[in-house]
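Technical note accompanying the year-one report. For the benefit of new consortium partners, we illustrate the data format agreed upon in the data management plan: each record pairs a sequence with a structure-token string. No post-processing was applied to the example shown here.
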Amino acid sequence: MKKPKKMLCRQHQLRIAYELKDKEYFLRYAMPCLIAKVMAHKLSEKEYNSLIKQFREGKDFSQEQLWKLFEYAMRKLLVISIEKNKIQGGKAIIDKETIKEYFWFKHPQAVLFKNTFVELCLVLPAKVIQKRGKKYFVETPLGSREIYAWEDLGIGDFVTVHYNY
């Protein structure tokens, strides 16, 4: 009898140790993806609000939680870190550079091939053009949009936007 192949694509079958160096940086990009899960009825609004609160309060997210919420992104990040030979102490290292590469270059490919809200899912460069209270208006290559920010921004600041964050 043949042994089943080990798969890289499921958390419980993952056999590669890794270290996510900057969870906050990852979450700044990833948290806006949760609204797509709400729209697809894979996450309740109550769960969504609880997770946003957890992030805003700086509370930790476990590896299990990250895999459950962002499995596709976590798998792709792991693959990128291995392809770039970012291995230390027997662990694949997922650092800021790897996270940026995924969200700037690999995430758009995934979005374009899914049945989803393409314009909102793309991570785009943007320039802050106006501020009204806690809302900001930015100009992106796809036009203007209203966003919320995790921190204060100034007119003329350059940011990346994902959904309306």
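Partners are asked to follow this layout when depositing records. The radius of gyration is 17 Å.
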